[in-house]
Structures are given as structure tokens and as C-alpha cells.
Amino acid sequence: MTAIPGPAAEPAEPADVPAPVGAGAWVILPTYNEADNLGDIAAAILAALPGATLLVVDDGSPDGTGRIADGLAASDPRVRVLHRAAKAGLGRAYLAGFRVALDGGAAWVIQMDADWSHDPTATPGLLAPLEEGAADLVIGSRYTDGGRVVDWGMARRFVSRGGSLFARVVLGLPVHDLTGGFKAWRATTLAAVDFAGVHAGGYVFQVEMTYRAQRNGARLREVPITFRDRRVGQSKMSRRIIAEALVVVLHLRWEELRGRGPRRGA
User: Fold this and answer.
1) CATH number of the domain that residue 113 is part of
2) CA-CA distance, 242 to 163, in Å (whole number)?
3) What would you measure as the largest C-alpha separation in the chain, in angstroms?
4) Considering the domain boundaries, does residue 89 fall inside one?
């Protein structure tokens, strides 16, 4: 008996493949003398956000961090490197990285430190409110409910909390952690900030960027994180950085009172 062939089967349509976690996100990672940290932290970031682009912004590190970054980029197309001639302040490194990410078509931009004080596994949680349309700037917060700091002495805790409280009161911001640098931005919110008008070159950059975003009407969200002291190397905090923070915060408020700074809800 000869079998009569039936109609040819329709080719199966490929199942929808979800985009990898972090698709459309750029992670900006400033470095200066982070040779002992960069390889492992880069791997951890890309494991948490396999769809993201990692941009290392190296300020001419004399310990060879830039060469390590180049090696990572050569072996993984998700890694890119921006070399700057010399150390010129954390804020300036971030601004340079932000420009590259925005020009590269980023939908979301994450900023974080390379010293393991910011946990790479927390990055999807920072992105979630942006992807859900619930926020424009998400801050990984040590000082909101559920957030905490470990490995710090009382003096460092006092300076950090006191700085955030001072900036919050002077600038009238609804954020508990203003000095932290673990943030996720909607690209359009970041692009709306006038980079040319940013005063800060040091850690007060974190306060100023949140202030400018909020005055532009950005919706802010804090999500709790656990912050740990850096694994290796030395902290770059100094009395000069603390003094700069106080001066810049007061200057921002003074400019606003004179009608020369960004306005609330503008």
C-alpha cells in the first residue's frame, strides 16, 4: 500500500525570544587605578545585564587599568572604552561617558563605581522602575527603608548622612540619599540636563545631577541597596571634596534664589 502524502506542513514560526536583561542600557564605569577590580567587576556587570553595553571611562590610570579595559573590549563586543588623558574629576568622567552613551542610542544609562561598593546584581532592580514607566531617575539608596551601609566607621557614616541631609534641606529635594553614585537614568531625562551648566567635578556631582533632573520635572525613585566599602585600594574621599560639596550646594541654592538656576518643575 502506497501512502498518499498529505499537504506539506507549515514551517513553525520561531517563538518570540525575549530581549536579554539590560537590552538598551549602557553602564558607565569611571576608573582611576582600578586594575585590581576592573576585570571581575566588568564580568559581574555583564552577567547581571547581559544585554547591556559597558563603557569604561579611564582617566589615564598609571596602574594599567586602561590597558585592561582595552583587553576586555577586544574580547567582548559589549565592552567599550573611553580614554581620557588625565584625572579630571569623577563628575567630568561621568559627563564624558554620558555623552558617548546618549550618542550611541542608549535607552537607559546606569552609573556605578568600579570598586565593588555598588553590587552589580542590584542593577536590574534599578532598571525596573524605568522600564515600567514609573520613574525617570532611580537612585540606589543607602538611606531609604531597606537600605544599609556595611564596613564603614561612625565618622564616615556621619559625613555621608550629614551631607545628604544638608543637601536635601538646602535644595528642597525629596531624596534621602543624595551623595550616592549608583543610579539609573532614562536617556531622555539625562539628555535634558544642561551638561555645560554643571559646576561639580567631584562627588557633589551626584547631588547636582539629581537636583537638576528634579528641577526639570523628572520623577525620582529610591530603591534600597546595600553599600559596602571598596574591596581593594584606597577611598578617594578627602576634606577638599567635602568642602567642595558644601560650597556647590550653597551656590546652587543661591543661583536659584536669584532666578539664575533651574526652576522647580521647569
Assistant:
1) 3.90.550.10
2) 8
3) 97
4) yes
Per the structure block, which three cell numbers stand in for 95?
559627563
Name which of 37, 88, 30, 89 is nearest 56 in CA terms. Answer: 30
* C-alpha cell recorded at residue 96: 564624558
Average pLDDT along the chain: 88
Looking at residue 233, its pLDDT comes to 54
Residue 181's identity, in one-letter code, is: G
pTM of the model: 0.87
Q: Is the dihedral of CA 89, 95, 98, 103 positive or negative?
A: negative
Highest mean pLDDT out of 12-26, 38-52, 154-168: 38-52
Q: Which domain holds residue 33?
A: 25-257
Among residues 120, 119, 140, the alpha carbon closest in space to that of 184 is found at 140
Cell 577586544 belongs to residue: 74
Alpha helices, H only, the chain:
35-48, 65-75, 90-103, 123-131, 154-171, 187-191, 205-215, 239-257
C-alpha cell at 80: 567599550
The answer to the question of residue 9 being in a domain is no
Residue 155: pLDDT band (50, 70, 90) is: confident
Task: Specify if 105 maps to a domain.
Answer: yes
> Which amino acid appears at position 250 of this protein?
L
Please give the tally of structural domains in the chain: 1
Domain-located, residue 53: yes
Which grid cell is 51? Answer: 544585554
- Checking if the pLDDT of 8 tops 90, the result is no
**C-alpha dihedral sign at 79, 85, 91, 95:** negative
